[in-house]
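In the laboratory, one determines a bound structure by crystallizing the protein with its ligand and collecting diffraction data. In a computational setting the workflow is compressed into a single prediction: the sequence and the ligand go in, and a structural description comes out. We illustrate the idea with magnesium ion.
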Amino acid sequence: MVGIDQVLEKLSTVIDPDLKQDIVSMGMIKDLELDDDKLKFTLELTTPACPFNVEIEDDVRKVVGELPDLKSFDMNVTAKVMEGRSLDEDTGMATVKNIVGVASGKGGVGKSTVSLNLALALSQTGAKVGLLDADIYGPSIPLMLGMKDGYMQVEDNKLQPAEANGLKVVSFGFFAEQSHQAAIYRGPIISGILKQFLVDTDWSDLDYLIVDLPPGTGDIPLTLAQTIPITGILVVTTPQDVASNVAVKAIGMFEKLNVPIIGVVENMSHFVCPNCDDKHYIFGAGGAKKISEQFKMPFLGEIPLNSGIMSGSDLGKPIMMTNPDSPSAEAFRLSAKNIAAQCSILAAKLRQETESKEASDDSAKESAATIKTQTSS
Ligand SMILES: Nc1ncnc2c1ncn2[C@@H]1O[C@H](COP(=O)(O)OP(=O)(O)OP(=O)(O)O)[C@@H](O)[C@H]1O
Ligand SMILES: [Mg+2]
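The predicted complex, in structure-token form:
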């Protein structure tokens, strides 16, 4: 009769293609029960947006099928998002597992559009998602969601995010007195507002917080990078950015600050012909890929240029909600999965670093204790 060790040995031949580690040592097998010839366990993926969920499940079924003498097999598939940032009570935001800043070198490349639709795509996989509009000078998320002002309240000294399409949303544009005016503040005040939005907001438990940044390398991206640990930065480019080199400057700033770059998404990348579904790269192909290769960071997707994306934003009806079957929505979904996978990779790296630090702290304590014993004896 097959034993637990044999089952685990077989399961450990299944490798998560993103994490490049086996599913047993990653702790993805839970509640394993082997009752004579009946096997039951839970496969816990590292994100509900896992791009390889079907592949991993198929591999598991295949290897379990190779075990002898099994009469029944029951697999429950769930997901628990890994922590892609250090959740330290002292720095706040200890209930937010991943924070992803969305940045660009220049304005108007579609950061807000991409942030919102990616947040929705992640949320539609079942993840708990928040969206922070960090463009305090020119908040655009409320308009893109068809919301104006008065949505955010303060309770117990904490800002309560607005709720929209399953997202928890915070924006300066929700403040009644600000919604029709441009914010005219100096840098330190703007930084203070962003800090409050980050740490004084009741985000509750979130798997992913997407932070829509203003363009460039000013006070706000700097404040985000320096206030709390974040998982990383997603860089949005357009095909034109390659020539002007602006994306490169933004990447350089975050690299200098030791903030990981999650990868690049190219927006307005191509046009999908409505008649033949062919992709036309009207501004030239492969620009963002070139940048990602130059900086050795992942290329995470290309979003088509589509009037439906623009009109949806203008009308407060994001394309992920109004036309989820369109090629544009599919492109956002694919990019969202790739981003979630990169967050899991960074989380696994963080976990490894923490474990090896704990191990070296333990061995330092042990050798200190030995020295003490030797000295006192
Ligand atoms: N893929 C797309 N196809 C068509 N229009 C798009 C696409 N992405 C964004 N847009 C449009 O481009 C304009 C700029 O987009 P958006 O406001 O998201 O850019 P941004 O980078 O956030 O700008 P800013 O730097 O000012 O914050 C908007 O009108 C938006 O609807
Ligand atoms: Mg914007």
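The two ends are 54 Å apart (CA to CA). Keep in mind that any predicted model is a hypothesis to be tested, not a measurement.
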